[in-house]
Specification:
The complex is a heterodimer of chains A (about 525) and B (about 230).
Chain A: H1 2-11, H2 16-29, H3 31-49, H4 53-84, H5 91-107, H6 109-123, H7 129-138, H8 143-165, H9 182-191, H10 206-227, H11 239-268, H12 271-298, H13 305-327, E1 349-350, E2 361-364, E3 367-370, H14 371-394, H15 396-406, H16 408-413, H17 418-444, H18 450-465, H19 470-493, H20 511-525
Parallel strand pairs in A: 1-2
Antiparallel strand pairs in A: 2-3
Helix pairs in contact in A: 4-14, 4-17, 4-18, 4-19, 5-6, 5-12, 5-13, 5-17, 5-18, 6-10, 6-11, 7-10, 8-10, 12-17, 14-15, 14-17, 18-19, 18-20, 19-20
Chain B: E1 2-13, E2 16-27, E3 31-35, H1 42-49, E4 55-62, E5 65-66, H2 72-77, E6 80-83, H3 95-100, H4 108-119, H5 121-125, H6 136-149, E7 154-158, H7 166-179, E8 184-188, H8 192-198, E9 201-206, E10 209-215, H9 216-220, H10 223-230
Parallel strand pairs in B: 3-8, 3-9, 6-7, 7-8
Antiparallel strand pairs in B: 1-2, 1-4, 4-5, 9-10
Classes of the chains: A mainly alpha (about 525), B alpha/beta (about 230).
Chain lengths: ~525, ~230
């Protein structure tokens, strides 16, 4: 009759003895968990005590910085896995794409605007989906012929769109030509000499390009509506949809006409504002990509988890190749925004207030920290942690997510469109990964392999913290970050070993192996991770 | 006129043919009991109404509208409440949140509060507790209460008396009787005594087929049918 007793104890919450008993029960249930946490903290403290005082503070802060970036990746993974049991292997690549798009919005806003124009036109026909569905309903083909014709329409539409989009004017970097490489542009923006590139013009008549993209978009939209089950509700072509259709076309044309003053204005902004702008742009774009991936590729495969894994893995590879093709293979960095790049007089900043001095570095507790890496990145990590916790605990969407993790069918049976919530969470997780990518770009630089590195760290963090626990994801990311930085620091100072003259210096390459060893040990003792609940 | 009617419904779960011709009429304002042995397809019938296991053939109509191919959340949104077999209380959510999540319009919980706590006074003092701390009986009450928050015209209640102590069964029956004054109920119930005291009509399902339907008053005296399809007298 354990339920009866728990009912009784909750009825008298103010009696001290029952509270003590509850605490004892809790300890009894969680003794392994508490022990593992204590051992973990003990190991970290001992490792840090082995360092000099000024070293250990900066090591902690650097660990927090890496932990914050890892957390931004792992938070999305954890939300997505918790709610829909999808393990998104492309999540690291969303992080990477976020970094590259962020760099582009920050350094080459003019390129992004040039690309936005045909994209708006391509999206416009999708606003008229009911019209395409109605036309699709007239297609009398059935079965395989219907499917083939639909896929045919999508392929022809995509080819039409692709070849007409290349006719649009596009100013872009060139990885082969040194003056035009991304690296050189990063140097220029750092020096404040970067200007918009001279505008290109349409190759061939503009009207052909514009109509071609619209036709391509219409064919793709039509193809998708033929693929849908016939006889489904098609909705009405109301004013709202027509206005969206027209609005997108007008927006594209207006953007084309005013792009030069817009470019001048953006390039005139301080790099700090441009950095915040690029965070927003990157998050929105990758979130939209995430939503698209969920709806088009993952949703049809909810009953087949292995196919889902394979498709997300494939998306990851495609994104890596896409990034190599568009931005070039060589690695480059993103210039640090002005607010975190100050040098010269009065720098480095002193004490905690020094974080706001505009200097690039700050001296705190005898150690020297980088304001961007160890200050701003950690701050954003904490803001996101608090923000997502509030979203989960205080909003209706959060309530639906928490309920959906447990009984998605019951949530559906209450009249809530769970699939739409899935899409929103997928977009949110992708956006958070992109935010991590933009934040990482000025500190660790951009490379097509950065996603894989952070995905590995995130998987370790996820397993250590507990697969479906959001606070667990944060703790796991912290463990991964601290572990990495402690190993790197000991690689520099060395670990003295008795009777051996040379101190042992672990190479930074052991970091991934070491974090996996820690993960294995924790999982052997605590199969559900530090904060995870047992799965039934 | 029937509020809900199923006509010759067939349902597959994966490759298994679970419903092989179920027909049920639920007249407006009544309580209909769905009877049958374990594994006869009673729960699947409720799930098919909600589209959780969609019918592969046959029709389901609610309030004159064909809902056979509608999505679950749309069907529920038309005014159907569901109290599932294993209660499916959200353990992570508090009792209040468990009720709040069923709102289809903001503030519905406040409107219905009085009625809900009138039926289940216990829930009021448990309102801040997480769902996981409730006893089985409290969870069952919460599951019914959750289906009452939105404006539902039909309740699908699966095994309300299962696992409850006799005194709680009485309380649950009182609650269902009271709420049926405003709402039509389709009830799955193993306990024939409970079913016979609550429902006006019955439908018996055997191996996925409707085999008998009629007035509960006639069934109570029909020992042969009870013995044949329900196994006990």
């Amino acid at each position: 009759m354990s339920t009866e007793t728990s009912e009784l104890t909750t009825q008298t919450p103010d009696s001290g003895s029952s509270k003590n008993r509850e605490r004892a029960e809790w300890l009894q249930e969680n003794r392994v968990r508490v022990t593992v946490l204590a051992v973990l903290i003990f190991v970290f403290v001992v490792a840090l005590l082995g360092l000099d005082r000024d070293d250990w503070f900066s090591t902690i802060m650097q660990g927090l910085s890496v932990g914050a970036l890892t957390f931004l990746v792992v938070s999305g993974l954890s939300l997505i896995f918790g709610l829909m049991d999808v393990f998104n292997l492309a999540h690291g690549e969303f992080f990477m794409l976020g970094a590259y798009l962020g760099w582009t919005a920050y350094t080459r806003a003019d390129t992004l605007i040039d690309v936005a124009i045909p994209m708006l036109l391509l999206g416009a026909p999708f606003a008229l989906m009911p019209l395409w569905r109605r036309i699709a309903a007239m297609v009398t083909l059935a079965g395989r012929a219907r499917k083939t014709s639909a896929i045919g329409a999508i392929v022809v539409g995509a080819l039409t769109a692709f070849f007409t989009i290349t006719r649009f004017p596009l100013v872009i970097w060139d990885a082969e030509n040194f003056a035009m490489t991304p690296t050189n542009m990063t140097v220029q923006i750092d020096l404040g000499t970067l200007a918009p590139l001279p505008a290109e013009s349409f190759s061939g008549p503009a009207i052909v390009a514009i109509l071609g993209v619209l036709l391509g978009g219409a064919l793709i939209a039509f193809g998708f509506s033929v693929l849908r089950k016939p006889g489904m509700e098609s909705g009405a072509i109301d004013m709202k949809r027509l206005a969206t259709f027209g609005g997108l076309i007008v927006a594209a044309l207006v953007l084309h006409l005013i792009k030069e003053p817009v470019n001048e204005w953006i390039f005139g902004l301080s790099t700090t504002w441009r950095f915040f702008l690029s965070m927003g742009v990157s998050v929105v774009l990758v979130a939209a990509l995430g939503a698209l991936v969920e709806v088009v590729l993952i949703r049809p495969l909810y009953d087949r988890p292995i196919y889902q894994l394979m498709i997300t893995l494939g998306i990851g590879f495609i994104l890596i190749e896409l990034v190599r093709e568009v931005w070039g293979r060589p690695e480059f960095t993103m210039a640090r925004p002005a607010a975190f790049a100050g040098t010269g007089e009065g720098c480095p900043g002193q004490g905690l207030g020094g974080f706001f001095s505009g200097c690039s570095t700050v001296e705190v507790f005898g150690g020297r920290l980088r304001v961007y890496n160890e200050g701003f990145v950690v701050l954003v990590g904490i803001v996101v942690l608090v923000g997502v916790m509030l979203l989960l605990k205080r909003t209706r969407l959060g309530m639906v997510i928490r309920a959906g993790v447990e009984h998605p069918e019951m949530v559906e049976a209450l009249g809530i469109n769970v699939r739409r919530v899935f899409t929103m969470v997928f977009a949110l997780g992708s956006g958070l990964a992109a935010l991590g990518g933009v934040l990482a770009a000025p500190s660790i630089g951009l490379s097509s392999g950065m996603g894989a590195v952070f995905l590995l760290g995130s998987i370790v963090a996820l397993a250590v913290g507990g697969l479906t626990s959001f606070p667990g994801a944060a703790v796991g990311a912290l463990v991964v970050g601290l572990l990495q930085q402690i190993i790197i620091r000991y690689g520099q100072v060395g670990i003295p070993i008795p009777f051996v003259e040379e101190p042992f210096k672990p190479s930074p390459t052991v970091v991934p192996a070491a974090s996996i060893v820690v993960m294995v040990i924790i999982l052997l003792v605590l199969p559900t991770g530090l904060l995870g609940r047992s799965e039934k | 006129m029937s509020l809900l009617s199923l006509r010759d419904v067939h349902t597959f779960i994966e490759q298994f043919h679970i419903l092989e011709g179920v027909s049920v009429e639920v007249p407006q304002g009544s309580i209909v009991a769905l009877l049958g042995r374990n594994g006869a397809g009673k729960t699947t019938t409720l799930r098919t109404v909600l589209g959780l296991n969609p019918a592969s053939s046959g029709t389901v109509t609610f309030d004159g509208l064909d809902i056979t191919e509608q999505k679950s959340f749309d069907i529920a949104g038309m005014g159907i409440g569901y109290v599932p077999e294993n209660r499916q209380i959200f353990a992570e959510l508090s009792v209040e949140e468990n009720l709040r999540i069923a709102e289809r319009k903001k503030g519905e919980l406040e409107e219905k509060e009085e009625m809900i706590f009138g039926l289940f006074p216990d829930l009021k003092r448990l309102i801040r507790l997480p769902g996981t701390n409730l006893s089985g009986g409290q969870q069952q009450m919460l599951a019914v209460a959750r289906a009452l928050v939105a404006d539902n015209r039909l309740l699908l209640i699966d095994e309300p008396s299962e696992g409850l102590a006799p005194v709680l069964i009485e309380q649950m029956m009182d609650a269902i009787r009271t709420l049926s004054e405003h709402t039509t109920v389709l009830l799955v119930e193993q306990n024939f005594i409970v079913a016979s005291r609550l429902a006006q009509h019955y439908v018996i399902i055997e191996e996925g087929r409707t085999v008998k339907a009629g007035e509960m008053a006639d069934l109570v005296d029909d020992d042969e049918t009870i013995k044949r399809y329900l196994g006990a007298a």
